[in-house]
Amino acid sequence: xxxxxxxxxxxxxxxxxxxxxxxxxxxxxxxxxxxxxxxxxxxxxxxxxxxxxxxxxxxxxxxxxxxxxxxxxxxxxxxxxxxxxxxxxxxxxxxxxxxxxxxxxxxxxxxxxx
Amino acid sequence: xxxxxxxxxxxxxxxxxxxxxxxxxxxxxxxxxxxxxxxxxxxxxxxxxxxxxxxxxxxxxxxxxxxxxxxxxxxxxxxxxxxxxxxxxxxxxxxxxxxxxxxxxxxxxxxx
Lengths: 114, 112
What we know:
The complex is a heterodimer of chains A (114) and B (112). Chain A contains no helices and 11 strands. Chain A is an all-beta fold and 114 residues long. In chain A, strands 2, 4, 5, 6, 9, 10 and 11 form a 7-stranded mixed β-sheet that branches. In chain A, strands 1-3-8-7 form a 4-stranded antiparallel β-sheet, with no helix packed on it. Helices cover 0% and strands 49% of the residues of chain A. By secondary structure, chain B is mainly β. Helix content of chain B is 0%, strand content 54%. Chain B has strands spanning 4-7, 10-14, 19-25, 32-38, 45-51, 56-59, 62-67, 72-77, 86-92, 101-102, 106-111. In chain B, the strands form 2 sheets. In chain B, strands 2, 4, 5, 9, 10 and 11 form a 6-stranded mixed β-sheet that branches. A 5-stranded antiparallel β-sheet of chain B has the order 1-3-8-7-6, with no helix packed on it. The termini of chain B are far apart. Chains A and B meet through strand 5 and strand 10 of A and strand 4 and strand 5 of B.
């Protein structure tokens, strides 16, 4: 079955540590997205990629980095510069960039700073 | 900037009753309006969407209506069931952008 796989499901980060969240899709979608979800704030866009080897900052990109070396993969690194990283992170994909396609979301990664 | 307001933030209904969630958007050029359902600990799932050239769309017990003049759209769930309990998000896609603007979510509880 086609879909998006996020791993790990739970992740714990120590102060000052970088961590990488994995996102893989087998839907042959061109566009991929990373969102952060906090209680009462909906979903906020961190980064998005319209095509391989290209990505753009979203609304809250500070303290995060991404890469898009393969169509199927869009990993997110949460760096030590992100001061409040505890949140639920969601990866999504759509057939193409442009806001009139439905997104397919992964099941999320819950990141906690310890 | 673009904004989507969603109301109510929580909604409790008796099983079998109808539920209505409303969203208002700010960018009149928005042209695509999806609705997502998110169950606890899972990612959101697209349940229905509507484009700006359509006023209403229905899929079994779920319907979405769009009023472009007033810039608002609504999700209607009829004959609610306990499995409808979840958080529902609306979104709007401003013209010329590659992203959605999401509402803040509505927690729906269907009481048996």
